[in-house]
TrEMBL record, chains A, B:
Domain of life per record: Bacteria
Similarity section: Belongs to the homoserine dehydrogenase family.
Name assigned to this protein: Homoserine dehydrogenase
Stated role: Catalyzes the conversion of L-aspartate-beta-semialdehyde (L-Asa) to L-homoserine (L-Hse), the third step in the biosynthesis of threonine and methionine from aspartate.
All residue ranges annotated as the ACT domain in the record: 353-426
UniProt entry keywords in alphabetical sequence: Amino-acid biosynthesis, Metal-binding, Methionine biosynthesis, NAD, NADP, Oxidoreductase, Sodium, Threonine biosynthesis
Any GO MF annotation of the entry: NADP binding
Residue numbers annotated as active site: 207 (proton donor)
GO biological process, one term: methionine biosynthetic process
Length: 430, 430
């Protein structure tokens, strides 16, 4: 069965992920060969700093000219683990034009240019696989794209960023504030020196765009994803969450509207009940819930990042793409036939937890309740707490649209008796 | 892109699972067509009782002659959801011989004859897919076979039978005994009139054989799986488990030996710590942990049975197999190249919780400890409880082989001071 000609693989990038890909390609060479049906050969490694010592990598394979590498014309598979938009994008399209299939872990690029990259792959009759781009080692893209291909997915709800989950978990378990927890995450290597992409939700938003597109067989652009970071979550928010039997997670949520005619995708911190399986996802782990018509609720859990776990996902794709090459075929490409519109955040329906600082005098609750009623937002529970002439009102609503809630809050701010809106947080997973 | 010739699908069996497959094929016809690239047409439905009213099924398609149906010669895909060994086995091989690919949910058959069926598929250049055979809707076979194809799986540990999990969960949460919990499971439709296959672990053992084979790229026969049912788990066992911060689950465990040179597969009740994610799997849900070199720990969770969830898995396979047909290719077949020997239960290494009824007199503990030491089984903790001249000793061991533990227990039974061995339970998931 075994072909003698090896599959030639070029590695673009040899950092956290790439070095692990190279390592496993060497240590597990026999297994990979048996599973693909042909040996794989590392044909070249493109990096920025050619002189860096890279254990286990033949220096003769290392180059700084990634473009020349992908233009060689004899490559079967290009593994792109450089990250960012350029030069990754041009290198990938050049690889397709020169006959290679591509495996990438690049969520930022896939979320921004997935459609064009898929088109380039299809035009050249090549594969574009990127399991590693979402939730690291956790098999998610393949299950959504293939295992659930006979089902109708209605909702994807998950923790897809390990850095922020580490920070929020710290805040929850130790009572630390955001900055303190971030400092610890940085010290332990869970957060980068510039944590913006994680804590402002950009990374999770890219993953949400990718997941929504695959789950709903439609195109969801990065700009379509409503994004709120978690830098403003406070210890007080965690205290409020606890009182409700909840914790706070940064969630990526992709939903099909109830009438099935549109979808939404969003990233924001939210309270979820402690009884929800996502509530007990600790540290830098990721987990994703998928709800479908026939299969009901599925959950996928595992390490969402790290060199080795991400390399595992890359290599799973490498085996699949390698098998496709040998079989002269390609796997499933982009599936965007449903072409559903993406609704704006205003149409998202969920529950809310709102803390108001109010004057401690009679009639305030009635005033506040009237504002909610006027905006069609129905109240589930209210808790009133008075101290020193000041008082706070904690309102938890029934399901309402983001637009209706926004209107309510705007009107509340105009009430004389409302001194301020201390916090607004969505309540999910019920 | 859409071909006009539809893919012809025959349904063998139209019971709990088959009727849902037929329903979804009708209601989701457009989506299936878009995802496969050609419409699917239900070409025939084989059942035992032709006159039973079957909602949504054209009576003209129904036949009792399954053999004639699979011999038609114009079928693209045969979906086997009859169950059991015969006639399912002959029907599947006949289907291959007449040019069809096969999707099956039949764990009993796959565990017993998987190798021969895979060979028949390969000989005829056809696909054999069976995601639904293990853990219902949960994508598990595809992730193991494809997503983790670039990794080295060392362990699969899971709850793969919903009926027994329902019963154990009831015993745990209500303090009920086995019979009482079984009666409730039967009344609620979670257990069949004859629950033997579930409660004696036959169903889980079939799944363990399938999972071990795929995870370790080797052949594991049903006979290779050590199997113990859960009918002898008592309320007292749950009380002991609780004292240790554990609960009891019926686990399927597939392991690679530490030296990598052999594998084991087993099904038995075991204590697992409450902090382990499998401990909180409630009711009839299933969940499977997978541990690999690079990816670390992954977990897959969802409904392990039921008509619609199982049909979701069947239809996912149908889409994949349909795409392969259109592309003139086949997916990954059996991967048994590793050809690892399956070790016997004696070589399995784990921890044990042992309750002994002993005479309440000085020196008993020393005697008992000596027996453990003589057999090379190291003790982690001992708890001694005396009441009315009788006493009990609860011993929790460090990791030891099943053979060593067996020898220890045999020797303990011969001690005058040991009145009886009240229970032995393995401790997993630590
Ligand atoms: N790290 C994770 O846990 C993780 C998880 C999931 C997905 N990902 C994704 O995987 C990708 C790689 O991440 P990483 O953490 O491995 O990044 P990294 O450690 O920063 O490595 C980047 C690599 O790309 C090389 N490189 C940078 N610019 C280049 C250029 N212009 N030409 C050639 N090589 C260039 C670097 O070369 P030098 O070695 O010479 O600097 C380095 O080897 C990103 O898309 C990331 O989002 C990462
Ligand atoms: N039920 C689940 O939750 C579940 C989950 C995972 C996997 N599975 C697997 O799925 C398969 C089907 O299970 P099920 O629960 O759907 O079984 P079921 O409800 O008993 O249905 C069996 C079907 O097969 C038909 N049948 C029986 N003998 C036949 C024969 N000789 N020729 C033609 N048709 C025959 C029956 O016909 P009549 O309708 O005329 O009786 C019935 O339609 C089994 O392999 C099972 O292990 C089931």
């Amino acid at each position: 069965m075994m072909r003698t000609r090896p599959l030639k693989v070029a590695l673009l990038g040899c950092g956290v992920v790439g070095s692990e890909v190279a390592r496993i390609m060497t240590t597990h060479a026999d297994d990979l060969a048996a599973r693909i049906g042909a040996p794989v050969e590392l044909a070249g490694v493109a990096v920025r700093r050619p002189d860096k010592v890279r254990e286990g990598i033949d220096p003769a394979l290392v180059t700084t000219d990634a473009t020349a590498l992908v233009k060689r014309g004899d490559l079967d598979i290009v593994v792109e683990v450089i990250g960012g938009i350029e030069p990754a994008r041009t290198l990938i399209t050049t690889a397709f034009e020169h006959g290679a299939s591509v495996v990438s872990a690049n969520k930022a690029l896939l979320a921004q240019d997935g459609a064009a990259l898929h088109a380039a792959a299809e035009q050249n009759g090549r594969d574009l696989y990127y399991e590693a781009a979402v939730a690291g080692a956790i098999p998610l893209i393949r299950p959504l794209r293939e295992s659930l291909a006979g089902d109708k997915v209605n909702r994807v709800l998950g923790i897809v960023n390990g850095t922020t989950n580490f920070i929020l978990d710290k805040m929850d378990t130790t009572g630390a504030g955001y900055q303190e927890a971030l400092d610890e995450a940085t010290a332990l290597g869970y957060a980068e020196a510039d944590p913006t992409a994680d804590v402002e939700g950009f990374d999770a938003a890219a993953k949400a765009a990718i997941l929504a597109g695959i789950a709903f067989h439609t195109r969801v652009r990065l700009d379509d994803v409503h994004r709120e970071g978690m830098t403003e979550v406070t210890a007080a928010d965690f205290a409020s969450a606890k009182e409700m039997g909840c914790t706070i997670k940064l969630l990526a949520i992709c939903e099909r509207a109830e009438d099935g005619a549109s979808v939404t995708a969003r990233v924001h911190p939210a309270m979820i009940p402690l009884s929800h399986p996502l509530a007990s996802v600790r540290g830098a782990y990721n987990a994703v819930f998928v709800e479908s018509d026939a299969s009901g609720q599925l959950m996928f859990y595992g390490p969402g990042a790290g060199g080795a776990p991400t390399a595992s996902a890359v290599l799973g794709d490498l085996v699949a793409v390698g098998r496709n090459r040998l079989g002269g075929t390609t796997g499933p490409g982009e599936s965007a036939y449903a072409a559903l519109p993406v609704s704006s955040m205003g149409e998202v329906v969920t529950r809310y937890h709102i803390s108001l600082d109010v004057a401690d005098k009679p009639g305030v609750l009635a005033q506040v309740a009237t504002v909610f009623a006027e905006h069609g937002v129905s109240i589930d529970t209210v808790r009133q707490q008075g101290k020193d002439g000041e008082a706070s009102l904690v309102v938890v609503t029934h399901r309402a649209s983001d637009a209706a809630l926004g209107g309510t809050v705007e009107a509340l701010r105009k009430l004389d008796t409302v001194r301020g809106v201390a916090s607004i947080m969505r309540v999910e997973g019920e």
